[in-house]
Amino acid sequence: MQRRLLKNAIERHGHVVHQAENGRIGLEMVKRDSGLFNVIVLDLMMPEMTGLEFLDALHEFGTQIPVIVQTGQGGIETVVQAMRAGAFDFVVKPVSPERIATSISNAMKLDQREVKARAGRRSRSGSVGFDDIVSASPAMLRVIDLAQRAAQSNIPVVLEGESGVGKELVARAIQSGGDRSNKPFVTVNCGAIPHNLVESILFGHEKGAFTGATERHIGKFMEADGGTIFLDEIGDLPLEVQVKLLRAVQQGEIETVGARTAHKVNVRLISATNKDLIEEVKNGHFREDLYYRLNVFPITIPALRKRKEDIPHLVRVFADRFSSEQKNGRRMTVNAGTLALLTAYDWPGNIRQLENAIFRAVVLAEGPELTEADFPQIAAQLPEYDVVDHLALVADNTGLDPDNGYGEDFRASMSGEVHHRLSEASENAIASVNPAGDVRKLADVEEELIRFALKFYRGQMSQVARKLGIGRSTLYRKLKDYGIDPDNPQKDAA
Predict the structure, then answer these.
(1) How far apart are the C-alpha atoms of 126 and 118, rounded to whole Å?
(2) Domains of the chain
(3) pLDDT (tens digit per residue) in 268-296
(4) Which DSSP state fits 57?
């Protein structure tokens, strides 16, 4: 009965369903034609072969199909085993049509990204679509909805939000979703260009227009002709350049430095800023007429701390992507406690900071699973937090139902484990400030890191030097300078 209801729910969302009576038959179907399947919905309790045995066999076969595990039996051990075995998501029976549809949609997005990566279809320009934006929160779904509407026209768009929230990704998706998808997409970081070069870089210059102009340069607007130009940090544009930008927006003309006539250009303009442009206008730093010309279709992208529902999905996508890029190509899983820890953190650097943290953890991880101990810097900044609340948020976004006994068992059993691992991770963290609240001296931090590395790698000098990124001779010199005994790094040498 439940199988039939699940089949009907999936088919209502436009998917074709192939059913198998048991795990053995299902495995044979996958081996026979793995390219036929985009997602596998797997029951953990099956005749002839359990779901965990199926996952192990699937891994040995080498298929990359995302697997959504469903079960009516709970327990943290089951969750951990399924995730370690490579499950993409976890739902509890009876699962709602909306929940399974969302899970399948997210799994198919992941599958499509991997296919593109393996086939090398993504161009060097970084062409992406709306399916490449990982989102589970209502706030980001609203952003995507607005961006899809904006893609249907050529009106100017301003993307507002803090640094690192993904403004360029949204801009590229808008371009890919419109009628200029096969045209150039040119990015300009206005805040990174010296003020005396902004005009030349944007609009180009003629040979001999100024000292050092030994040849003609067409500029970014001419490069983007027919396509889209993305002006990042537009609030940093000098006022004198804003005048020329206004003309480009109003009349579709640009003035090349040193040229006698204007050039016609046809570009879609998307701007981005982490500033409050209204305040910039009030303070005289941004032209009011240009503001109203650009701000026709504003889209505000929320900070990651305001859409924490997205964090578990982002973490798993990044972990999967970075681990697949490593030499061994082994896929890494992320345990529930780690998801809870990362969800608790506010990420002031937003998605960019989260992405960098996952990349570092994947590169340095010793095992096949990312744990709290792989994020000591984050744990050190969260000595105490409400484990239950954040596990609940993770549960809501990984298929665990907080309203039934399974969800309660999950939180209760994980609470102590998370606190234990957080304490362990905090012990491994190196403090950046001293008890007085001042930043510690670099030499003190370096000495502490060397002592920690010696203990962590059990005195293996070659490995310590390699992990610290220094030569063995340099390591020995520093041991002498700091008076560290390599056989007992917590004590000074005699």
Answers:
(1) 15
(2) 2-119 (3.40.50.2300), 138-301 (3.40.50.300), 305-428 (1.10.8.60)
(3) 999 999 999 999 999 999 999 999 999 99
(4) H
